[in-house]
Fold this protein.
Amino acid sequence: MRRLGSLDARGKNYFEKMNDTIAALSTPQGESAIALVRLSGSLCAPLAREIFGSSPEPRRANFGVYKSSNGEELDECVYTFFAAPASYTGEDMLEISCHGNPYIVGKILEDLILRGARAAHPGEFTRRAFLNDKLDLSQAEAVSLLIGARSDKALAAARKQLAGGLGKRVAEFSDRLMDMAALVEAYIDFPEDDLPAEDKSSLAKSAEALARDFTSLIETSKYAKMVHGGINAVIAGAPNAGKSSLLNRLVGEERAIVSPTAGTTRDFIREKIPLGKYCANIVDTAGIRKPESDIEARGIQMAVEKLADSDIRLVVLDASEPPPQFPNEVLQTFSPENTIAVVNKCDLPEARTEEFLKLYSKYNPVAVSCEKNEGIGNLREKMVSLAEANNITASADDILVSARHAAALERARAALGEAAKKIANSEASELAASDLRESLEALGEIVGKTDCEQILDRIFSKFCIGK
């Protein structure tokens, strides 16, 4: 299979651009103790000599004063040179650690561009690493996942992918496909040998077994969004049940307005919180009741839609009031697998806590008092338990695939299925061989061994500049 983007016109243009030396700030914008300016390309060694007055030894931190092209001393820096190919990008690289004053950083970047470097595009360092065979495409994507990880689960999945876990699995699949293709080619190249029919039967069984392995990996994609993006937990309930108070308690600050006036919350309030080994996106919604205005009606309808799309439903119930009568369209979204009945205001004398806990027993009930901050820890534990019970985990070897990977695996599985049918039905071997090649091409898209420059553009456009 060919390296992704290696032959088309856009790919050629990009390889020409790779002769440039690129520079970018690789730490976040703003004031900090230290900032890291990163360069990659053939000018790195000459620039180090010009700027700091000496030829740096590779992979050794050096102290020096950054002197601009007009002789101005900009800052005291620590700089490190990495000689190709033993670098992140596979090219010569230079990393300059200066003081984290945005003005100093700006002056250094301006000077580097005056000396012949150019500003890097988003993800260009990692893109060069991919094109120089330092990473496969799945590993390159994992760099972005690692930077954005906000939970233990997301961090573990990103590390596994960055270490080449998915690439190794795809390589194993590809090897099995190529073994099948070799046998199919034997029927094409040596038809006079009259190969036995039982070989075809064995080949069909191998294809079916591989298709099942494709399916197992595809199924992990439904958890990837939860692990990397966070579990979506929606707070719903009748007006004044304490939904906004619950959000504030879960977040740990006064994030939502709390008011005794019904209909105060009309739009969504979103917050991200740690939840055990996960990250949760908490959404507070409008109180569900008979609306008194068109705006409130729209807010309630949007709340129902959010409930239907959520991973966990937190239904807040006021234990001091009669049980609410929710519309059928709301009740249909509740199930023991996705709903927690949050019985609130249990500190009030008139609260009928035990009655509510029994009434909503199938919805994982938990008693809380948002006013006194009681039971919130128990609620968090129940949310984690519900997430675990719903198998928000990776595959047996901790590999998760993204929607892009799953789509490629679906195509690979479909083509393999067609090949298996043709083999089992003793159809022309040339047709089965074509299906197997199509399956291999689809697998190649996952790790970047097929021509599709648009995929590269889409992936790396989401990266930060300097990564």
Remarks:
- The CA atoms of residues 137 and 447 lie 4 Å apart.
